[in-house]
Design a protein that fits this description.
Elements lengths: L1 E5 L19 H7 L4 E5 L2 E5 L5 E5 L1 E2 L7 E10 L4 E8 L2 E8 L5 E4 L4 E2 L5 E6 L9 E9 L2 E10 L2 E10 L2 E8 L8 E8 L5 E3 L18 H8 L3
Parallel strand pairs: 1-4
Antiparallel strand pairs: 2-3, 3-4, 5-6, 6-7, 7-8, 8-9, 10-11, 11-12, 12-13, 14-15, 15-16, 16-17
Length: about 230
């Protein structure tokens, strides 16, 4: 069975949180995993799921309305967790979609994920756009069967997370780089540590309590529904 999703609005994918979050060439992924991800034509990106279904996303563009477009590329694959990352790009808009290769379950992310050394969790991070095309953020997901559980998710608009990395399986190190510091000296080190109750605690809570602040990555509800809706 083919599951076809056609997007209608969408915006530029850029990760500046560290080289670990960079995208992989789509050409390489389409060649190395040709049985699992392929294009039926130049405008359709498809994933062959272990369940037997095929999940497809179709590009859209209008010659009359440049703002009305969306382009899809596969940019990352984690074989151990069996998660694909799809880059969705449009006019002044961008985001990523994490797709489970077994069931097609999916969620939105701010970047391609980096797994912890034990493979139990995925880390995503991206700096915000100066032009306001997209928000930055940090996310931590726990792998749970054929889906992901969000353990930490924060929207960042006024500082950039830099050199974000796994220090160990329960600690994440990062640098807070202020985007609007006049003297240019706005870099502060911080960590997030996993506690016994499954929550992540910052050693510098002030990094996440300054206004404006939102606890969740905020994307338009219609876009979220389109990509995260039931298969």
């Amino acid at each position: 069975m083919f599951l076809l999703l056609v997007s209608v609005v969408v915006l530029p994918a850029y990760c500046d949180a560290g080289s670990a979050f960079e995208k992989v060439s789509e050409e390489i992924l389409l060649t190395d995993y040709s049985q699992s991800v392929f294009k039926t034509d130049t405008n359709s990106l498809c994933f062959a799921l272990s369940s037997g279904d095929t999940l497809c996303f179709s590009d859209y563009s209008s010659q009359d309305i440049t703002q009305f477009m969306s382009l899809h590329t596969v940019c990352s694959f984690l074989p151990e967790q069996n998660y694909w990352t799809m880059d969705v790009f449009g006019f002044e808009y961008s985001f990523f979609v994490l797709i489970n290769g077994d069931s097609g379950w999916r969620t939105l992310s701010v970047s391609p994920p980096v797994p912890s050394s034990d493979g139990a969790r995925l880390l995503c991070a991206r700096s915000p756009s100066f032009q306001g095309f997209y928000e930055g953020g940090m996310q931590i997901f726990r792998v749970s069967g054929d889906s992901l559980v969000t353990e930490f998710s924060v929207c960042l608009m006024y500082w950039a997370p830099e050199n974000v990395s796994w220090f160990n399986d329960s600690t994440i190190a990062y640098y807070k780089s202020s985007l609007f510091t006049e003297d240019g000296d706005g870099v502060e080190k911080g960590t997030l540590t996993l506690t016994g109750d499954g929550s992540w605690v910052a050693d510098r809570p002030d990094h996440f309590t300054e206004e404006p602040f939102r606890e969740e990555i905020s994307l338009f509800s219609d876009i979220r529904e389109m990509y995260i809706g039931e298969n």
